[in-house]
Records
---
Amino acid sequence: MSANPRVMAVRGVDLAVRDVEASADFYKRAWGLEEVGRQDSTVYLRATGQEHHVLSLREAPQAAFLGSRLAVADKEDVDAIHARATGFGADIASVPADLPAHAGGGYGFSFRTPDGILQSVSSHVARHAVRIDDRKRPVKFSHVVLRAANYPQLRSFYCDLLGFKLSDETDGIDFLRCSPDHHSVALAKAEGPGLHHMAFEMESLDSLLYAVGRLRHLGHELEWGIGRHSGPGNNVFSFFVEPNGFAAEMTTEMDQVDDATYPVRSKEWWRENRPYGGPCAWGVATLRSDLMHRARTGKLLAERNACDKVIAEAMAH
Ligand SMILES: [Fe+2]
């Protein structure tokens, strides 16, 4: 069994959506992902990179964040993290086993974090032999930010159980890495549990501008950005609200971290060192829209779920 098992990447996230065809249409035509398979009422979507899929959409009466999928090196690490999760008292949702071929196969297990968020850990998931040659579409999943009511315990789960490292800490968010990317998971110290936002990586600023242009051309408003975070990660950001009410980000140029030299910076340091004292290092992006604020707090998702429930009940009578 591996002595130091750890997560190496976030493969992507899984969402429950109210209308899978409408959501899949948004993520294919507007966001730029490509369908790679479907099973029952779940659609799997890839980016241009080789990861089997970066997003799955499962039709359900209410939209919800279903969880994240985490990559480890091999079966030994799957088994080792499973053993460690059991020792942590984690709620094991499925024990290590071969995974369904329609979702890329591989070997893995899943568990729930202390606040109930499902995490699947896997190795040997099929990879696409060929990258899609289109710089105007996302290349990979970048990061998932969770609203974590009990964030110290959740941070311990990510760091002590899954091998993440703390990159930076601010008053609002802890940023965790599992690769040279400054953050792949971040924990927002806010009401939760839930999805604060999910981000997909563009290969360059030029690529991101093309993607933002496509989204706007198709009628999707830019709710925050384009800007460069004047905070941890230093990445370029652009935020949209997707059809279910989740906050979705296109990002690029995230800081690459060297474990040997990177200084973890505290919330006190960040209070003192933000350029302009605002959210954008360029001084270009203004504050996020009210819609984006409600998406990141989960209020918009709840409102749209409630609205659709009323419509569905009225149609049934
Ligand atoms: Fe982000």
---
Amino acid sequence: MTDDQPTTGVVLAGTDAPLAEGELVVLSDRKGRRYLVTLAAGEEWHSHAGVVPHDDFIGRTEGMAVRTNRNMEVTVFRPTREEFVLKMKRGAQVVYTKDQAMIVAAADIQPGCTVVEAGAGSGALTMALLAAVGPRGRVISYERRDDHLAHARRNVARWLGGEPDNWECRAGDLADALPGLSAHRIVLDMLEPWRMVAGAAEALAPGGIVLAYMPTVPQVMRFSETLWADGRFALVKTSETLVRNWDVDGLAVRPAHRMVAHTAFLTTARRVLRREEGGPPLPRRKLDTGPAIDWDAVDRGGAQEDAAAERDEDDGDA
Ligand SMILES: C[S@@+](CC[C@H](N)C(=O)[O-])C[C@H]1O[C@@H](n2cnc3c(N)ncnc32)[C@H](O)[C@@H]1O
């Protein structure tokens, strides 16, 4: 591994080294369709565009176009993390790049941080967290479903060339583990993040940050109200991130016709001391939220799964 490589082992796109057997590459056709391939000597890549022997890529450089036996050209690249996530196999719905970026920024995930996350799901957010904390930091991921845990482990290992030393991937419900943990940041992508609030207050030192990623408004309401009610959280903020792509072609410069309108909301909060310990006064709530909502009925409605299905744009093919 050369000095410009992250210690976790991924070969960076844009690295000036020939493509080697065993490396992941992305093949891009004329229409911009992308295919994720692990290079293996003697094997062939087959698609509607035709056939190309992997040996045509091994030993060559990124950015090179190769002709298939049907005279179509495909260009080879090392994948970006975004390309890998869109094409990797998933169990659970992943967090996409626009939200990963905002999660890292909103939760202030810095090199050297210890981050606890749940659920690991397919491992997409885990990869972003590992990149953000760097080799001096640590990510501890909890996942309560064994099948999802297996996906997360396989995807992270495939992307990073093995499970990195600074990642602990644990089976189990985060609610059971949190009171015994200690972290700078806690990142929740799960159905019931409000169940983690009391444990998060135990695991975070004052100033620490908890973040939840939630597709639906009832989840945001319940999580926020639980944070306020706990008395150890302040600066509770919610946002969503919309990314509008543009087509730029000659004078035809305009927003793309289609966009992903909704994925999920981010709610962050800072751990503070309780008022009686010297912490800040809790703000007066502006509105009575009205009659109690039957949250269990909301959960059984499968709201998160519906929203998750909608945010799944890409089936993945690797
Ligand atoms: C939407 S997925 C997470 C996707 C993941 N962030 C990614 O980007 O690939 C939600 C996951 O949380 C897990 N989960 C839900 N509640 C949990 C809990 N209390 N403790 C641990 N995992 C939990 C579920 O099994 C599911 O795999």
